[in-house]
Amino acid sequence: MTLPDQLSLLDRPGVEGMATAASHAAPLDLASVRRVAGSFAAGGDVFTSEDVIAQLTDAQRERLSAFPNAMGGVFFHLARAGIITAQGYVTATKPEARGRAIRLWRGVRNGHV
């Protein structure tokens, strides 16, 4: 299954957690999150939610900030679809995060990490 095919699985309703988060957040913004995370994943890159957020527009970041759990749902479903895999935790770099731990992800290429 190709990466675009795997990403399309995320658009199916009824997947636990994501449907609720997506119903509250702007669908186009979540699509942008999927696209950016998918780009990192396609290269087998290691990345965090902060890396994805940095690639969004100011307006997208502002809208998504109102629904902080929505982005986590995207990452959860990318992991369930086998597109990314958790690699541990790192310290957040945004000052407002106050040094909390955030998940480090790696894109999975051809089923191999």
Any key phrases for this structure?
three-stranded antiparallel beta sheet; 113 residues; alpha+beta; 6 helices
TL;DR?
Helix 2 (18-24) packs antiparallel against helix 6 (68-80) and helix 3 (27-42) packs across helix 6. The longest helix is centred in the first third of the chain and has 16 residues, at 27-42.
Identify the overall geometry: globular
Report strand order across the widest sheet: 1-3-2
Distance between the termini: 16 Å
Number of strands: 3
Most strands sheet? 3 strands, antiparallel
Order of helices and strands: HHHEHHHEE
Radius of gyration: 13 Å
Provide the residue-averaged pLDDT: 78
Q: How many discrete structural domains?
A: 1
Tally of contiguous helical segments: 6
Helix content: 40-55%
Our estimate of the beta-strand percent is: 15-25%
Structural class: alpha+beta
- Ranges where pLDDT stays below 50 over 5 or more residues in a row are none
Notes on the structure:
By secondary structure, this protein is an alpha+beta fold. The chain has one domain (17-107). Helices cover 50% and strands 15% of the residues. It has 6 helices and 3 strands. It has helices spanning 3-8, 18-24, 27-42, 49-54, 58-65, 68-80; strands spanning 46-47, 84-91, 101-107. It has a 3-stranded antiparallel beta sheet with strand order 1-3-2. Helix 2 packs antiparallel against helix 6 and helix 3 (27-42) packs across helix 6. The protein is globular and about 30 Å long. The relative contact order is 0.20.
